[in-house]
Records
---
Amino acid sequence: MPAFAVTNNLDWTVSHRPLFFTGNDGQPIKWDEKVAVVRDDNGKCLGSVSPNYETVQNSDLLKLINPMVEEGLLSVENMGYLNNGARVFAQAQVNQEFKVIGENYKAYITLLNGHVGNASVAIGPSATRVICGNTFAMAYSDLSEKYRHQAGVNERVLESTAVVDYVNGAMKKYAEYVDKLAVTPCSQAQFRNALEAIYQKDVDTMRDSFVTQLNGLFYTGRGNEGRTFYDAFNAVTEYASNYSRKTSAGRFNYANFGQGSRINQRAMRVLTELAAV
């Protein structure tokens, strides 16, 4: 089993098991000062800890982000373990529709945990993507919320509001930009200029069907009336999400991870700047 691994899930648990050593007479003697930490799925021993070391299971750590992942507010971008599972990590980002201008919401919501050793549970935003032991340590140093594996650590971890506060902050900032776009009129000429800035090419060089479809979405897309800069923003994002590719998987990847993601972010920046003029 590799020392470092990226995985789609951390659906395994650990348990504490007795440690024994061989006495002078050749008989096993239980060592009460330490217990072994063992992965229950494969029986791999990850190390030893004191008997009062309170474990935080992977599933309990992920409870901090799973509800928001299920609601579509967060997407897990990076998850895995080091040293065969002795340390685990999960990193999520605010989904595209809530990404806003500025650096604050480009960080990962990061969850780190150690099943052995002195690694506390650590929670919060970090710009460091975990890809090895060194970046795990860098991300760990970024995080301000840390909980030692003492009695009651599970309750303290589950009571953390770091993830909720971060996502709420992103949504609040997004709402502020949206409110500005929603009350600022956008003419057909301004929409044309916006398209050229967003797609970084002259409208006359774009496919006629593409421009016609965007114009249609500006006027009659979901909730749109062709009146405001928010209608313009919705037209661009609705195209990325629903019409950019032939398959649903292709549209999802385009809008969330591919060129469409960059275009959507540029659309928010361009339209916010135009609305402020």
---
Amino acid sequence: MLAVGSFVALGDSFTEGFGDLYEDGSCQGWADRFARRLDEVTPGLRYANLAIRGKVVSQVAEEQLPVALSLAPDLVSLAAGGNDLLRPTANPDALAAAFEQIVVPLRAAGSEVMLFTGFEPGFPLLRLIRGKAAAFNAQLRAIAKRHDCLHVDLWSMRILADQREWCPDRLHLAPDGHRRVALRACEVAGVPVTEDWREPLPAADAGPDWLTSRRQDLRWAREYAAPWLRRRMVGASSGDGMTAKRPDLLPLVAGRQVSQ
């Protein structure tokens, strides 16, 4: 197991915790859950979460990397690139090169780096980027090996192919999905847990018929896809104007309490 006294999380909505909310409506997510478990086995953990929804790799490099370097944590998690891949002009090779330029200074500064390869797209529309996502993931695996990083392979988490693990927007994990990712991160970091992310879901019912499914698709397009496209057209992001939820390295009991 890693000796971790401080942990900084970098990235976008996945690491911010979108889709997994506390009772007050703020984001929890896999990183808070992982930090909580780290603190249980190494009390006194200091934790910062700089991730903000909508961020692309270049923004993580420009806005979050300098802060992470100044904090000099023992462990940094890095999950980014999903928002880039949704853009028609995305080039997996160029994107991976930019991603690596975040990893290099973190490793040079002495931080352990836990990087994430992305999910296999499960919904019909997202399957259009499957080839690009696979190519990007292949590059990230090579980066993890080249720089001796911890690697959390989300693509191989077949349990996450179940649509019940996702929010209605089909882009963000539901609470149980975040819980399973946190368990996988613990497994990679050697942090003991009492649950297994592979635990099967209950048997699913037959699901909606074809007509109901198409109605659900139309509702999704109206409520989620259309606003996303409008933001892209005007160059806006869902994270514009937002600040990090935990910008400083603080004990879990300080600032925002990350409790169950």
---
Amino acid sequence: MDSLARSPERPVTADRRRYRAVLSYVGTEFRGWQIQRNAPRTVQAVLETALREFAGEPVRAVAAGRTDAGVHADGQVVHFDLPGGPDPGAVRDSVNALLPADARLREVREAAAGFHARRNALWKEYVYRWSRAPVIAPRDAPFVAPISRKAEAARMAAAAEFLTGRRDFGVFAVRSRDDDPVRTLHAVTIREEGAELTATFRGDAFLRGMVRSMCGLLADVARGRFPPERLREILETGDRRLLAQKAPAKGLTLARVEYPNERTALN
């Protein structure tokens, strides 16, 4: 895996074409997106292994965003360059045949040489799911976090109102000297359907651990452990002592990535 980690992204030339793909994966058995020396099973590692076998040479895959260990994706967008310009449908089908069962390319298309999955993204959308059901169906259990049957969507929605806008979200993130903590959250939407609660976050970019940290607080507010104003207090003070435990990774899914002039992710 180290050789994959050191492989640079090659420039697009006349004999190579750039592709962009919509990738779905179940994050349960992955140690996140990014290749890691001490965690061989990452999404990037298995995708680049499949692409290398298909292309007959190392291929670097660049994602719109790095999901953490255990986080899923329905609409992750990646770009990669392949020699010879094979048909996008053939790329999708051939690479899927080489991928493990918990990762699939849903769509592959040719892209402009300068297209960049991360830099060109307008916004990303994450969805977090909770269930108040006394018993969660086995087919849903890997993707839904349990929450008290007394959890109230209205309380969660009141707290979510404090999160939108452009501001420093560093208090919610894993500490990093490399990240600018200022982000824009365009919308946070809370929905209730039967026993399930969902929170949808649409933003220009997200810090590592940011959404799960916010979801931990939203869940505690919904349970009545904190008032909705706790979110505003944390943003105003930056006091990490006021944070709740992070929400479990399994409830979080990268749902969609939007680009200028067209929808790259499938609806």
---
Amino acid sequence: MSERRVISSALTANEYRPVAVMPEVRVVKIGGQSIMDRGRAALFPILDEIIEARKRGIQVVVLAGGGTRARHIYTIASELDMPTGVIATLGKYIPMQNARMLQMLLAKHGGLFILPDDFEKLPLYMQMNTIPVMSGMPPFGYWEKHEAGSRIPPHRTDAGVFLSCEFLGVRRAIFIKDEDGLYTDDPKKNPSATHIPRITAKELAQRDLPDLVVERVVVEYLPRARWCKELQIVNGLKKGQVLAALQGQDVGTIVTV
């Protein structure tokens, strides 16, 4: 029997079983436009709840969104006919700046800024009782794919949170926004919009809502994920919502497979 056939037989006999690297970690994104751009009044209470969760023994990794400044970069670069990969590379610097600010605000509580190259050091950082903080932007850069009809990178900071969860083996990705989760319409524009407490990714795609509080690509990827099976969207402007989410409570909106 050839070596190739021996290896193939071994793989068949011992089915491939990927390892969940750090399944107990909570991966949470602080929205750029929804939270960071609002300043101290919105951000500080959220950081207090993250710190409290860490004191209670909950391991938290914080990822930062980009916000209005990132959208400004996307707009200008698109008008200049920059390729999608260049726009993604330019756009990564804003969530990185936000992550550095978050780290400094969390410094006395163990806040630690990390780059994508440091990702594999997370187990060590967690053992050191830190709160790792990083940009939510996935490191695709110049290799970001182009979508028909748009130059804007489809994988932005929401996608980065989802991919981080999938890599670590975390079941639920937590997104801190300025709304109670998903609605049938934009609640800021339509007061009669109805809150959606729980929905599947398939049902959400079928509804084809005009406005989503998370990137659509994340909803598309969810059914194909091996580990990350849920998205949780919580209102960071409501006291106690973030801590409840970090404790595993079903607050806000839950999107499942």
